[in-house]
Amino acid sequence: QVQLVESGGGVVQAGGSLRLSCAASGSIFSIKVMAWFRQAPGKQRELVAAITSGGITHYADSVKGRFTISRDNAKSTVYLQMNSLKPDDTAVYYCNANYSPSWGQGTQVTVSS
């Protein structure tokens, strides 16, 4: 199976930037899609961005133009570069492989106004 560890969360002022990292280990060859999800208190977990093994990307409309998902195959790591952050971006961010229903602890992102 695939093991994922998220990092890079923190507190940032509105308009600021943050880069999240997701390190993958295990059956990495089985990964076809890597994605970032987020969940704010009282809200459903939502897809933020995804990238396929072929490099095709997808973004939620709410983050398009502000967030960028990328990968470093040599490091088996996926990144989420978040720019122009807004208070509404505050959430726990989770990394996910192949849209698996299994989740880790995530990393907290707090955007203050």
Map the helices and strands.
Layout: E1 2-7, E2 10-13, E3 18-26, E4 33-39, E5 46-52, E6 57-59, E7 67-72, E8 77-82, E9 91-97, E10 107-112
Parallel strand pairs: 2-10
Antiparallel strand pairs: 1-3, 3-8, 4-5, 4-9, 5-6, 7-8, 9-10
Summarize the structure.
By secondary structure, the protein is mainly β. It has no helices and ten strands.
Overview of this protein structure:
Helix content is 0%, strand content 54%. It has strands spanning 2-7, 10-13, 18-26, 33-39, 46-52, 57-59, 67-72, 77-82, 91-97, 107-112. It has a six-stranded mixed beta sheet, with no helix packed on it. It has a four-stranded antiparallel beta sheet with strand order 1-3-8-7, with no helix packed on it. Strand 4 and strand 5 form a beta hairpin. The mean pLDDT is 96.
Strand order of the largest sheet: 2-10-9-4-5-6
Shape: globular
The rounded distance between the terminal residues' Cα atoms is 40 Å
Radius of gyration: 13 Å
Low-confidence segments:
none
pLDDT averaged over residues: 96
Helix content: under 10%
SSE string, helix = H, strand = E? EEEEEEEEEE
Oligomer: single chain
Query: What percent strand?
Result: over 45%
Alpha plus pi helix count: 0
